[in-house]
Design brief:
Layout: H1 3-36, H2 44-47, H3 51-66, H4 74-100, H5 108-127
Helix pairs in contact: 1-3, 3-4, 4-5
């Protein structure tokens, strides 16, 4: 891998950190607005949905940049993104259902699939060669 490829990859990771930060802010604003119109009913799934992209996206990719770790390959990043997005959507959806006053046992599929995608992405990252 040449120096220009490494710099290009670092730029991509910087862009990912910024994107995850924007998603975190958007989820926090969505949760705050939804909670304000929910007539005093709240859901922890909705309140803390912003933590998933913050702790699962912004923080790990910031650590990759700061500690100059090896950069995840595109396929590992994709699975990681799939996992974070699935968990975030599942959390928001579960929060909407709780605020509405109902439940659905199929919501667990979001968390199972999100966990599987995250596991696969992290496994691919750990098994990649330098």
């Amino acid at each position: 891998m040449s120096i220009s490829d490494i710099k290009k990859s670092r730029k991509e990771i910087e862009k990912l950190v910024f994107t995850y930060l924007l998603v975190t802010i958007a989820c926090a604003i969505l949760g705050a607005v939804y909670e304000s119109f929910s007539h005093g009913v709240y859901s922890y799934y909705m309140l803390y949905a912003f933590m998933i992209p913050l702790l699962g996206g912004t923080l790990p990719f910031s650590c990759v940049l700061y500690f100059r770790n090896k950069i995840p390959r595109p396929m590992a990043r994709r699975f990681h993104h799939f996992g974070i997005s699935t968990l975030t959507v599942g959390s928001i959806f579960c929060g909407v259902l709780e605020i509405y006053g109902t439940t659905n046992r199929l919501v667990i599929i979001y968390f199972i699939l999100g966990g599987i995608f995250l596991f696969l992405g992290n496994l691919m990252y750990l098994l990649q060669k330098k």
